[in-house]
């Protein structure tokens, strides 16, 4: 019985170890270009007045010097504006 159990446990441990060692590519942070693209795509889906659309488009395309945004900032802004996240 022991001769069968030991190799079986070893194979199971190797399989479980191999499954847990691969990094998930979805966990990488978004680049600045990807965040900008997501913001522009979200903006195009909203039904805003032309004035509001242009104001937000300008804020996305021409950020103020020293002003940085993360994906979390984008989600919070979208939630505040009534968008989904």
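Sequence proposed for the structure above (85 residues):
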């Amino acid at each position: 019985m022991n001769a069968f159990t030991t190799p079986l446990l070893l194979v199971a441990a190797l399989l479980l170890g191999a499954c847990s060692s691969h990094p998930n590519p979805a966990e990488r942070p978004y680049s600045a270009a990807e965040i900008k693209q997501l913001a522009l795509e979200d903006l195009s889906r909203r039904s805003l007045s032309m004035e509001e659309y242009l104001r937000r488009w300008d804020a996305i395309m021409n950020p103020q010097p020293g002003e940085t945004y993360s994906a979390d900032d984008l989600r919070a802004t979208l939630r505040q504006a009534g968008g989904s996240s």
